[in-house]
Amino acid sequence: MKLSNNTENLKKRKTGFKEGIVERNLGYILLAPAVITIGIIAIFPILKTFWYSLFDMQLQNITSPRFIGIDNYIKLSQDTTFLQSLRNTVYFSVLSVILELLIGFIAALLMDLKFKGRAFLRATILIPWAIPGIIIALIFQYMFNDRLGIINVMLIKFHLINSPVLWLGTKGYAMWSVIVVDVWKQVPFMALILVAGLQMIPKELYESCDVDGATYLEKLFYITIPQMKPVIMVALLFRTMGAFKVFDTIYGLTGGGPGNSTSSISVYAYKTLFNDLDFGYGSTIAIATFVIIFILCLGYIKLLGTEKED
Amino acid sequence: MLRLYKTIRHRKGRLEEGKMMNYKNTKLIKRVLFIMFFLIFILIIIFPFYWMIVTSLKSPDALVNFSANLIPPKVYFENYIYVFENSKLLKYLQNSLIVSGGTTIICMWLASLSAYSIARLKIKGKKYIMAFILAVSVFPGIAMVSPLFVIFKEIHILNTYWGLILPYITFALPLAIWNLHAYFKDIPKEMEESAKIDGASSLKILWKIILPITAPGLFTTAIIVFISSWNEFLFGLIFVSKDSMRTVPVGIMMFQGEYNIPWGELSAAAVVATVPIIIVVLIFQKRIVSGITAGAVKG
User: Fold this and answer.
1) First vs last Cα of chain B: how many Å apart?
2) Domain harbouring A258, CATH code
3) What's the predicted TM-score (pTM) here?
4) CA-CA distance, A146 to A177, in Å (whole number)?
5) Side-chain half-sphere of B138: how many Cα atoms within 13 Å?
6) Do B68 and A150 touch (CB under 8 A)?
């Protein structure tokens, strides 16, 4: 009550003091909403997923989970479906990322040249990026179809095959079909990043080589590729992370089949969580996915770090 | 220098002696090869999209009695009429528009505040905050869906717009903050200081000076956030099970029946869902390219 009797002077000082606190801590105050959102919707759930992975827990009776410690992790290490999904994911990621880098690099070199139609190429290359992954998967599912698919029809027409091939229903072919679709979808991203990198290479480097009469390939191997190394590493980092998370493409194209031969770790985790409603074990697979991606990411960052020191 | 001069002369000489005759031919061959490669490349990029349009214009008969006609024999609009009259496509479009629009607006707000704070204000540990935010962008969505599903169920936001907007904001924030941070950092300090002398508060500076200057960058980032929310599938599949609340990608996926897939209608729906986005992308092509690549190349 005494405070209310204070003089105006003191009041002024007090509000000034308050404003000072706000102004001095404004940086943290402005940062807070985003950090809190990320904390609640990303960090906390990851911890909680780990917590779930220690329980035997079905969605139907989620209120009575039974603590089982690391039993789920022991089960995981012996689960042949998980190990196959992991192998599939690695196979898929390595091959599609390498192909995306090679084709993306060629596309980037093409887009860096000056020619009529460059603007057209630059515009069309964004189309695969703009279409939802699941719709791309469905279009390709139709194109790969054994009876109605344009791919079989064309291959037969050009006498490359004699009878329709069950692209998505045959082990081996199915995985390659998934890789083709992913490469088609992701090459634009790769190419755009690499083009941006190409444009940052100082032109003088090429000019001095031109004086020496270096060929195009010499310039490519002695200037372009070494100069592009950091950008290539960043593009690889992004794409590898993306490939290890692959879900839409596989879910829409094959659903993981035939017989788990195209199932990725994300698809297997999804099926365990929302088809089998096994939240305990599904969370274990999800945590394994997270840990694998995190380790990979750290590895890349370490590589990038040593690159920069050199 | 002399040596360099000699090599140049030497190479030039070689070129003149032997290659002059073939030179024109090889140039022509190179050009033809280049054009062929270019055309094949464009064809491969465009074909699936083109084929989706062709399929959407085929009657059920034309779909079954398959021929390799690259142009539809007869244009058939029934698929589109069917999709608008008998499916929930319009509802899906409305849902996607609300979810992606809401995500974009909220995400841009949060991202501008935090990017401004990191780029312009005095705070400790900027490096760590940026690393933390970037780390979130590599988190696989699947690793957090099980608790989010349980939490959303408890607070009754499964099958609501918020159930999608919240996770979409979270996953769009890292990219938005990184992009905006790059734009904000490039503004010269003097512009801010003159306003400060006039007694403007930090928030006023953000609102009156920083945001207007970086408007093109904000716009680019907003488009990218919008498109990535529009295209998202995993959360849409998990957090929404009610048909009338589905977003476009999930709704179209559910066109598949148990035994057969209505390819004509599915393609028509896919065309309706993707053409507006593609038009926007083509209009703002240059901006979007710079927005996608900014973070990767500068970082």
Assistant:
1) 40
2) 1.10.3720.10
3) 0.88
4) 13
5) 24
6) yes
Q: Is residue A67 part of a domain?
A: no
Residue A72 lies in a domain: no
Residues 6+ apart with CB under 8 A from A48: B144, B146, B147
User: What's the rounded Cα separation, in Å, for the pair B95 and A148?
Assistant: 32
> What are the pLDDT tens digits along chain B (299 aa)?
455 555 555 555 555 555 555 667 888 888 888 888 888 888 999 999 999 999 999 888 777 766 666 777 778 888 999 989 888 999 999 999 999 999 999 999 999 999 999 988 888 888 889 888 888 888 999 999 999 999 999 999 999 999 999 999 999 999 999 999 988 988 888 877 877 777 778 888 888 888 988 898 899 999 999 999 999 999 999 999 999 999 999 999 998 876 678 889 999 999 999 998 999 998 888 888 888 877 666 54
For A156, name the nearest residue in chain B, comparing CA atoms only.
B68
| ipTM confidence score | 0.88
Report d(CA A287, CA A32) in Å as an integer: 27
| Domain count of the fold of chain A | 2
Considering CB atoms only, which of B132, B146, B167 is closest to A52? B146
A243 and A111 both lie in a single domain: yes
| Tokens found for residue A173 | 């072919």
In-domain check, residue A117: yes
Place of tokens 């082990």: A171
Structure-derived torsion over alpha carbons of residues A43, A48, A53, A55, reported in degrees to the nearest 10: 170
DSSP state of B156: T
Is A56 contained in some domain? no
A135 vs B166, B261, B270: nearest CB: B270
